[in-house]
Amino acid sequence: MRKSNATIAWRRKDLLDIESLSREEIELILATAESFKEVSRREIKKVPALRGKTLVNLFYEPSTRTRVSFEVAAKRLSLDVINIASETSSVKKGETLIDTGKNIEALKVDIIVVRHNYSGAAAMLARSLRVSVVNAGDGWHEHPTQALLDIFTLKEKLGAIKGLKVSIIGDIAHSRVARSNIWGLLKLGASVKVCAPKILIPAAIEEMGVTVTESLDEAIADADAVNVLRMQFERDSQDAFPKQLEYFKNFGITEERLAKLSKKIVIMHPGPINRGIEMSSAVADGPHSVILEQVTNGIAVRMAVLFLVAQANEYINPTKHFSNPKGENKV
Amino acid sequence: MKNLLLKNGRVIDPANNIDEVCDILVTGGKIAKVSKGIKDNADETIDATGKIIMPGIVDMHVHLREPGREDKETIATGTRAALRGGVTTMLAMPNTLCAIDCAERVRLLKDIIARTAFANVLISAAITKERCGKELTDIRKLKEEGITAISDDGSSVDSQKLMLEALIAAKKEKLTVTCHCEDISLTNNGVVNLGLTSTRLGLRGISKESEFKRVGRDIELAASANAPIHIAHVSCSESVQIIANAKQKGIRVTAETAPHYISLSEEAVFGYDTNFKMNPPLRAKADVEAIKQALRANIIDVIASDHAPHTENEKEIEFDRAEFGVIGMETELAVSITELIQAGILTWPQLVAKLTTKPAQILGINKGTLSVGADADIAIVNPEQDWLVKKEELISKSKNSPFLGRTLKGVVEYTIYLGNIAYKKTAKQ
Question: Which residue of chain A is at minimal alpha-carbon distance from B196?
Answer without folding.
Answer: A204
